[in-house]
Write a structure and sequence with these properties.
The complex is a heterodimer.
Chain A (H helix, E strand, L loop, with lengths): L3 H15 L1 E9 L5 E13 L3 H5 L7 E5 L2 H6 L23 E4 L2 E11 L7 E7 L1
Antiparallel strand pairs in A: 1-2, 1-4, 2-3, 3-6, 4-5, 5-6
Chain B lengths: L4 E10 L4 E5 L11 E9 L2 E13 L6 E8 L3 E8 L15 E2 L7 E13 L1 E9 L1
The chains are: A alpha+beta, B mainly beta.
């Protein structure tokens, strides 16, 4: 089994060839909001498959896959309070995260990290809007 | 330096919950840092009494030392720039309100925040530009 570093490097190489840049935004606060952005993340972006549409995912949804390389380098989303227990690098609907994909900011509906051998090597995310 | 760029040291909602030197997770791998510009902003800032953010740094696994302190009562934005400069002996100690310690930049930065009073609709952000 390849090491996590090898898996990330392979994913990065593929995304350089076939990916498109997206951005992530963590929105902090409700009335006086602060945005914490991570720009220039190469990602594979696609529309939902037939099976996903049948399963109830709407047509305006986009599915994004990307590596943590850019996020780790930027140390996004920065310093977090001790109350944050989940991996803060994973986009989340509950946190109100947004993603800039194909020309506009869209709401994150779902995010999932994949941790073979305990290290984050890939993130998948669904956005809509 | 290793990883020059812009980082967010803290971004949080300040509420009625009293914060007592609450440490935010650190920004690491900043070896060779020679200049640090900080931008601290308290947005909203209504209903509360005091809000304090202290930036700390350390060399390797050493003790985190205070290098900048921002004090707020209501909404405001403040900044400062810290640099490595001429050699001089400095006392490493807790900082007074709205003060800095020059010439000491390690390889890691973090921020501790404290608040009193009942802040509502208030958000704090502390950004750092390192080079």
């Amino acid at each position: 089994m390849p090491s996590p570093a090898t898996m990330i490097a392979r994913l990065d190489a593929g995304l350089v060839k076939a990916g498109e840049d997206i951005a992530l935004r963590r929105v902090v606060g409700t009335v006086n909001q602060v945005n914490v952005d991570c720009l220039g993340i190469p990602a594979a972006v696609r529309e939902p498959t037939d099976e996903e549409l049948v399963a109830g995912i709407t047509q305006e949804t986009l599915v994004c896959s990307f590596s943590p390389t850019r996020i780790n380098r930027a140390q996004w989303p920065g310093g977090q309070p001790p109350t944050v227990t989940d991996d803060p690098r994973i986009p989340s609907k509950n946190r109100g995260d947004k993603a800039y994909v194909r020309g506009r900011w869209r709401a994150v509906q779902w995010g999932q990290g994949f941790y073979p051998q305990g290290e984050l090597v890939r993130i998948e995310m669904r956005v809509t809007g | 330096m290793e990883n020059p760029g812009d980082y967010t040291l803290a971004s949080l909602v300040v509420s009625t919950a009293i914060l007592t030197a609450q440490a935010q997770t650190p920004i690491t791998d900043l070896g060779g840092m020679r200049e640090l510009t900080l931008e601290a902003e308290l947005l909203g800032g209504t209903g509360g009494s005091t809000f304090t953010a202290i930036v700390r740094t350390r060399i390797g696994g050493g003790t985190l030392r205070e290098i900048a302190r921002f004090d707020f009562t209501t909404a405001a934005a403040k900044s400062c720039t810290l640099v490595k400069g001429a050699a001089a002996i400095a006392i490493l100690a807790a900082l007074g309100a709205n003060s800095v310690l020059q010439n000491f930049l390690g390889s890691e930065l973090d921020c501790i925040v404290s608040s009193t009073g009942n802040y509502t609709n208030t958000t704090f952000v502390l950004r750092a530009s390192v080079s």
